[in-house]
């Protein structure tokens, strides 16, 4: 369990954040740039010293301003994956991974570094310099390096933002598996809600140095506490297996149901659709028109956000629709109402969750 | 065969470079033209020549060692810490760069000479500086140190600060981060400063003459020996000059080769 409760002034900006992350879980801190997300990671790692607060990981207290405890960064067992990865340019890939391994002879350090690189499928790049690696390769080396010391907590700052859109979705799936396997509390920072929803067991939306709402991604989308959160959550994300058909792609959703999209994809995918693209009709109503996707749902929450209403929907994978207040009244939607959620195939975006290309070396 | 014909501006640039090149290399070329290889060897055999060379290399090497040992951490501090009065400290450290060497010599005398500010303390400690080899080292260190400090500071400032943070989170303390990340990453800047400072120390004349004097075998470095011969033995002065040019050129060249090599190139992101 990682426990953080800190408050500090950083220039003109103030940070006041309290959170816990259980072992094996990943909390995604999501928010716009400048919201203070990275500062939270830096406080946990000991790179920034807050005015007051407490940081503890398991039994180890890393910071307690009241008891004047402030453990140096090198003695906190944090695996930190920096934005842009911060690989040491003067060292080869394996030397980067071996950097935290001390008190071993060179052969043993190299063997362990190669083992780690191998786990991430980049052992063949062991002798490469970071500047010759592609974004995806750098990310793997950086994650391997962060795990080399068997950290008690993992901190990841925009781990996917340096990747191009194609590799990003596949890398997110891979990273998700790594986080679960590591079995330590993980704190991940991202400005992208979709990424937060895919990687985080829970999402905390950060704005102006504060956590404005925390919960499962679907719950944040369905019951946003403010228009800011409603806008920030963006698209609903579902996962499934895609197969190409004539004129489009059919996705068998995990947990049941199918969705049609115009984009082409096959294999595991993330399906995204914006809540305002989803229309609702009461179950048993007449055919709702040209939309190709229909999912039977049950209303679980009705949350007014400004002049709009967010409807949380229970289905095999939770959905969120955004309607006008008038429409909600007309349909008499309330928790328990059975309905059909519909949206157009053209409003459905697909993100492949596997890399189609093998890892290839590119120079930059 | 060039694809485009240079216009008048291109011709102007070429003319300017040609003029600069000729002017800057002519004296150096002339030294070697006037000195036959035989003269060179013969003059080195002369009394005092080898002695001066030995002194120059020894004193500059000791001075550069002191500069690197103290200057590297000092430059790292200036590059990585923000504190009140930092700009003033940086300026003070660079001040000797613009001091005329004679002023530097006078300053050293006023500070550490027998009647200087710290003169009594130096004497009390049983250290003799004025007119001694140690005085030469002191003068060279004073004059050359700012060259190294400036380059080293710029080198450390160019190191990505997140590398230092990353090193800390990977279990390395501040000292280890300095040795394992900051120094290798700032390598090209440090080597450039090293070469500049050593070159400056080898050529130092004014401050040495004022503070340490010109005694054969004790304080007479190559530049002082050249000056002494200049009036009586012009060929000998030329030959010694040629040796100094050769050493300085070799220094510059090896530094260029070293900064271009793979182990340092890695830091130039």
Provide structural commentary.
The complex is a heterodimer of chains A (364) and B (269). Chain A is an alpha+beta fold. Chain A is built from 9 helices and 21 strands. Chain A has a 6-stranded mixed beta sheet, with helices on both faces. In chain A, strands 2-1-4-5-6 form a 5-stranded antiparallel beta sheet, covered by helices on one side. In chain A, a hairpin with a 4-residue loop joins strand 13 (248-253) and strand 14. Mean pLDDT of chain A is 88; it is low at 356-364. With 269 residues, chain B is mostly helical. Chain B has a single domain (36-265), classed as Orthogonal Bundle (MetI-like fold), CATH 1.10.3720. Chain B has 14 helices and no strands. In chain B, helix 12 (222-230) packs antiparallel against helix 13. Chain A binds chain B through residues 42, 45-47, 72-76, 78-80, 82-84, 86, 88-91, 99-100, 102, 129, 131, 145-146, 148-149, 155, and chain B through 160, 162-163, 165-173, 176, 180-181, 184-185, 187, 263-264, 266-269.
How do you describe this structure in short?
The complex is a heterodimer of chains A (364) and B (269). With 364 residues, chain A is an alpha+beta fold. Chain A is 24% helix and 35% strand.
Portion of residues in beta strands of chain A equals 35-45%
Distance between the termini of chain A: 40 Å
| Spans where pLDDT lies below 50 across 5 or more residues of chain B | 262-269
Provide the domain count of chain B.
Answer: 1
Helix content of chain A: 10-25%
Can you tell me the CATH topology of the largest domain in chain A? Answer: Rossmann fold
Q: Major beta sheet of chain A, specifics?
A: 6 strands, mixed
**Count of alpha/pi helices of chain A:** 9
Topology:
The complex is a heterodimer of chains A (about 375) and B (about 270).
Chain A: E1 2-10, E2 13-21, E3 26-30, H1 37-45, E4 52-57, E5 60-64, E6 69-70, E7 78-81, H2 93-98, H3 106-119, H4 135-147, E8 153-157, H5 165-182, E9 186-190, H6 193-199, E10 202-207, E11 210-215, H7 217-222, H8 227-233, E12 236-245, E13 248-253, E14 258-261, E15 267-273, E16 279-282, E17 293-305, E18 308-314, E19 319-324, H9 325-331, E20 338-343, E21 349-352
Parallel strand pairs in A: 3-9, 3-10, 7-8, 8-9
Antiparallel strand pairs in A: 1-2, 1-4, 4-5, 5-6, 10-11, 12-13, 12-15, 13-14, 15-21, 16-20, 17-18, 17-20, 18-19
Chain B: H1 8-34, H2 37-45, H3 49-80, H4 86-94, H5 101-112, H6 119-124, H7 133-157, H8 161-169, H9 174-185, H10 187-203, H11 206-212, H12 222-230, H13 234-260, H14 262-265
Helix pairs in contact in B: 1-13, 2-13, 3-7, 3-10, 5-11, 7-10, 7-11, 8-9, 10-13, 12-13
């Amino acid at each position: 369990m990682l426990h953080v409760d800190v408050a500090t002034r950083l220039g003109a900006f103030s940070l006041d954040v309290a959170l816990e992350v259980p072992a094996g879980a990943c909390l995604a801190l999501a928010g716009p740039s400048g919201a203070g997300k990275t500062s939270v990671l830096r406080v946990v790692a000991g790179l920034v010293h807050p005015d007051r607060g407490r940081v503890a990981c398991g039994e180890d207290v890393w910071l307690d301003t009241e008891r004047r405890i402030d453990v140096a960064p090198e003695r906190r067992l944090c695996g930190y994956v920096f934005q842009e990865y911060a690989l040491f340019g003067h060292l080869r890939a394996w030397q980067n991974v071996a950097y935290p391994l001390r008190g071993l002879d060179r052969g043993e350090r190299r063997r362990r570094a190669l083992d780690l690189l191998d786990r991430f499928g980049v052992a063949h790049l062991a002798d490469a310099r970071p500047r010759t690696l592609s974004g995806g390769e750098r990310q793997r080396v950086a994650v391997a390096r962060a795990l080399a010391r068997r950290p008690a907590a993992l901190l990841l700052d925009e781990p996917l933002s340096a990747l191009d859109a194609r590799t990003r979705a596949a890398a997110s799936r891979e990273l998700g598996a790594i986080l679960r396997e590591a079995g330590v509390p993980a704190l991940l920072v991202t400005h992208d809600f979709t990424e937060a929803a895919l990687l985080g067991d829970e999402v905390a939306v950060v704005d102006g140095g504060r956590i404005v709402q925390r919960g499962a991604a679907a719950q944040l989308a369905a019951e946003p506490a403010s228009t800011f959160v409603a806008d920030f959550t963006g698209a609903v994300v579902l996962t499934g297996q895609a197969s190409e058909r004539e004129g489009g792609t059919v996705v068998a959703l995990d947990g049941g149901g199918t969705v049609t999209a115009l984009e082409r994809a096959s294999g595991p995918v993330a399906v995204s659709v914006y809540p305002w693209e989803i229309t609702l009709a009461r179950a048993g109503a007449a055919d709702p028109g040209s939309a190709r996707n229909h999912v039977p749902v049950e209303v679980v929450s009705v949350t007014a956000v400004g002049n709009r209403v967010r409807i949380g929907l229970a289905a095999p994978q939770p959905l969120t629709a955004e309607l006008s207040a008038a429409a909600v009244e007309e349909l008499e939607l309330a928790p328990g109402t059975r309905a059909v959620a519909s949206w157009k195939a053209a409003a459905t975006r697909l993100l492949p969750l596997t890399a189609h290309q093998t890892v290839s070396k590119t120079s930059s | 065969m060039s694809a485009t014909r240079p216009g008048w501006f291109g011709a102007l640039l070429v003319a300017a470079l040609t003029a600069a090149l000729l002017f800057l290399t002519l004296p150096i070329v002339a030294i070697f033209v006037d000195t036959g290889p035989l003269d060179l060897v013969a003059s080195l055999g002369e009394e005092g020549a080898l002695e001066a060379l030995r002194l120059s290399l020894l004193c500059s090497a000791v001075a550069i060692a002191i500069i690197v040992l103290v200057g590297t951490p000092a430059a790292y501090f200036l590059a990585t810490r923000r504190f009140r009065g930092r700009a003033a400290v940086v300026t003070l450290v660079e001040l000797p760069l613009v001091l005329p060497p004679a002023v530097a010599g006078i300053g050293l005398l006023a500070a550490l000479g027998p009647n200087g500010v710290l003169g009594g303390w130096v004497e009390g400690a049983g250290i003799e500086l004025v007119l001694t080899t140690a005085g030469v080292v002191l003068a060279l260190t004073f004059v050359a140190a700012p060259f190294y400090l400036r380059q080293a500071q710029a080198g450390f400032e160019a190191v990505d600060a997140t590398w230092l943070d990353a090193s800390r989170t990977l279990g390395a303390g501040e000292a280890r981060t300095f040795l394992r990340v900051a120094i290798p990453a700032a390598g090209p800047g440090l080597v450039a400063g090293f070469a500049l400072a050593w070159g400056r120390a080898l050529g130092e004349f004014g401050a040495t003459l004022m503070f340490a004097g010109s005694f054969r075998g004790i304080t007479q470095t190559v530049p002082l020996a050249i000056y002494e011969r200049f009036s009586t033995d012009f060929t000998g002065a030329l030959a010694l000059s040629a040796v100094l040019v050769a050493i300085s050129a070799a220094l510059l060249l090896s530094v260029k080769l070293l900064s271009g090599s793979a182990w340092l190139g890695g830091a130039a992101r």
